[in-house]
Structure of Putative teichuronic acid biosynthesis glycosyltransferase TuaG:
Amino acid sequence: MLNNNYSFTYTAYDLINENSTSLNKVIKAKKYEDYETLLKGNDIGCLTVMIDRLKINTTISFENYHHEDFVLWLKILKNNVVAYGLDEVLSSYRKSNSSLSHNKIKAAIWTWNIYINIERLPLNKALYCFSKYIINGFRKNDYKKETTCFYFL
């Protein structure tokens, strides 16, 4: 981060269960995310983010929204900031059946709400980004048998 003069960085992370057992799943960090690419799906793990507040001209605070981290990343990146990823696992995210984001239907509704009510995207762009979000979600969660027909749409 310091060597490259980056203001926003994040890393890859792996998933563990409630007993700290590895789920053998790594969420990779892309080389970079800008506002437009992040709209298509948030792979930036909050637990991995480093922000240089002296370089970011945005108030850094989590709002009272579902997916508040996604809202904050979009707010920052909308100001021509780029988030640079280090594709190295430096942390573990504990997946829990009781977490707020475990319910994928609710998570999808929250994402749609961000597109329409917070980012105020035009409907056609919101539909495009939401379709990318859904496809990326299926790929990220390794739904193979259940979604075979989805890929033919």
Q: What stands out?
A: The first helix runs from residue 35 to 38.
